[in-house]
Every structure is written in C-alpha cells, then in structure tokens.
Amino acid sequence: MSILFSRRQVLASGVAATMLPCLPRAHAATGAKRLTAGIRVIEVNGKPARVFHLTGPDGKPGLRLAPGERFQTRLVNETGVSTIIHWHGQLPPWTQDGFPWPQTPPLAPGATHAYDFAAVPGTYWMHSHHGLQEQSLMAAPLVVRGVAEIQEDRQEIVLMLHDFSFRAPEELLAGLTGTSVAAAGAMTGMMENVPVPVPGAAMPHSAIGMSSSMSGMGSSMMSESTSMPGMSGMHMDLNDIDYDAFLANDRTLADPEIVRVERAGRVRLRVINGASASQFWLDLGALTGWVVAVDGHGVIPVSGRRFPIAIAQRLDVLLDLPPDARAFPVTAELEGKRRRAGIILAPSGASIIRLPVMAPNRAQPVDNSLEARLRTTTPLVSRKPDVVTQIVLAGGMQPYAWSLNGEFWPKITPLMLTKGQRIEIELINHSPMAHPMHLHGHSFQVVAVNGLPIHGAVRDTVLVEPMPGSVRIAFDANNPGRWAFHCHNLYHMATGMMTEFRYEGIAV
Ligand SMILES: [Cu+2]
Distances from the Cα of 7 to the Cαs of 79, 116, 164, in angstroms? Predict the structure, then answer.
C-alpha cells in the first residue's frame, strides 16, 4: 500500500533505546515515553513499499509498559501529514481516545501531543483513526504487562497481522464503491465529521428495566420485515478486498520472521489482528496452546491448535514447547482462502522449515465457535440492566454501504447514556457478512451468542456472524464522554457503519 504523498525517506527514530524496568514503582517517575509516527520502506513480495510506522523509545514497533506504569506518552508526528492515533481497547478519558469529531483534532505534521492515563494491563494495540491510514500500516502493538505475567517467566512473542496492498487505500475504497479515487478520499473525510442527529428520530432504545439480563433474542427483536431463512445454504460475503500480501510482523510467509526460542521453552504469544479488512484462523501447527486472554482480558483457559481471530481482536496464547530441536511455524490463515502469514519459532540448532505461502486447505469463515466457549475470569457484577436496546447491522456489496439501525455515519442518532447505568445491547446481523464491532472507551462482557446466554468474555471487539447471527453485550456506563461504536472493517466504517454513544451532560 503505497502512501499517496512523497515527502520523507525512512526516518531513524533518533531515540536511544531504554531498558524497561520490571518493577512498577521504578517506572512511575521516568516521564513520558516518546512514540514516533513516521514513514518507512519495507519490502513486500520483493518490492519496496512506503508505509507508516509507530515506533517506541526502544526502537521497536509500538509501546510496552511495565506493570503499574501509566500511559504517559508524547506522540511525535514525523509523517509529513496529519494523523490521529487511537489506543484500541484502553479506557482513557474521552479527550485522549484518539478519535476524530471534536475530541481529538488531527495532529499536524511536526507536532507533538501528550497523553497521560491509567493503562489497562493486557495485549492492546494502537492505530490511526484518521482517513484510511490504518491500511497503510499505521498500527502497532501496545503491550501492558501485568504483575502475574512478569512472574510467570514466559518468553513474550508478539504476532501482529496486517493485510497489504500496493494500491493506495483510497483506490481500494474507490474500487469497492464504484467511485473515483477523489470521491473515495472525500468519503473518508465524512468519517471525521461530527455526527448529525437525524431530525425527529427517536432514540433507538426504549425497553428499560427488562426482567432478565439474559433475555436472549425475542421475536420483538425482529422488528424489520426481513424474513430469516435458515443458516444452511445462505450466501455469505468474505474478504471485500483482494490483497497483495498478508503480513506477520511486517513479513510475508515467503520471508518470515524467525523467532529464537528455547527448547522446552515457555511462551506467551500475543496475537493482534491489525488487518483493516481481513480475518484469520490462528494455526499453531504441531503445538497445542491455551488461550488465556482475549482483547487483554482474562478467560478460563481454552486449549486447542486453531483459533479464530476477527479484525482488531487479540488472543493471548500460552505455549509450552516440546524439548525437540525442531522449528514450529505459527500461521494465520485468511478466512475462506488458502492464503496465510506466519512466524517460525526456532530453538538454536533447529533446521528452519519454509512453509508454502498457501495452506493445504481453504480456511473456514471465521465464526463465533471460540466466542461461545469463552468464560471470563472478571465478570461484570450481576445486576439488572437499566437500558436494553438493539442495533441492527445491515448493508451489502451492491451498493457498497453498511449501516447501523438503518443509519449511515455521520447522519446518526446517538445512543444516550447516563453515568452509572448498566447497558445491554443486542447486535443483530441482517447482512450476509460478519462484522467485528468495536466500542471505544469501555470493555463489555459478551452475555449471549446467537441467542444462547453465556457468561462470556470481557473484550472490546466482538464478531457478529452473518444473518441471522447475533451477539448480546453488557457494559457499565462508567467513562463519561462521546464514544464511537463501529464496525472495525475499515471500509465498512468508511461507508457508514458507525454510531455514537453519548453521555448525558457532555458538552458538544
Ligand atoms: Cu462490518
């Protein structure tokens, strides 16, 4: 994905590497970490590609925080264009969220902006929320280590996934929408408009104080005249964009990262799906792993060799390596295809296996088979919801446009919240495509999947399977502000699939 402007060559970070102290208090007084947004050149399929980077003070992508360390960061914009960086899944005050509208004006070229908030431990990430920059790899890990993770003494390995095209992102959007590149560029500007309330529209929620927090999908949820045929034989859309490559830690499987590990080593694999429009199956090959956290939040461990990961989601997987001197590929297979990316875990002396870029078999569509099995280790306090509502996900490829409750950003009706409320939302998919739905500024608990009540995972991004898929989420309104709720498929968001959750009393 070439970047549309040409101003700078690769920027050296110019920042001395610093060691991360392991003790929380040792770190509290060291001041803000420098995070540099810039331009770099990487090689993809043997060709150079100018892309963005986000580099921390240690010269590595993104940031790593010690247990108890605050998110004290100075973001320096050396890209030559304006940008906005979002701290995905973290719970900052709304004015530090890194989102457009009034709360975060774009950071001008050469400018610096300071952030300071309490960091939530776990595997997170950061990405641009400005235009389509995320597609040009303006995304990086944000790892906040917990005390227990330091004590468990496991090698930490980050596996960050991207989808890549040599075409400019605006060109990709133009191809989807059948418009000119200029019109697609103008469309991305719409994403950053202040929402315009729909005149006379009622608030989309009304059922206050339902008797059960696990009320499931009642017939009243199907308020539209859509008929709901059975699951079998239904048309399903996958992979809007035909990408040139899929990257694991910026490299294709033809030239993968070789990660040195110890024989019989213990590993915490932090998998981040930083792709803009692609979903994967994590495949551990010969290894069996334990999923112990999703989106940074603990779950009762689930073992397996193959796990789905939707756009923007994260998986923490514990691996206990066998004592062999073998290399272990860990791959991510694109849903519905044989294409994949991956890294190789290799103890010293192991002969390195080069995997074919194509998997032997076509991967299944990513689904909620794992989601339905997850049980959180940190459930919400049990209480009756104050607000129960539904959001219908709709849209399609012809024309290419996606909506929430029939509304297209920025012409939306905000969901109004009051601090202290418990909110439950049924997400109902009326479209033939799955949508990874992300809420800013809050974590939520998944309390039902496809109508089946569960004490599910706490997370910030949940997949809603194609029609008639549904997911019910619950969260506490505990972070006053104006917050985005949107599909994390970048092109669905760009064509309307976003709304706002707004607290009462927040000045516009
Ligand atoms: Cu979507």
Answer: 8, 31, 21
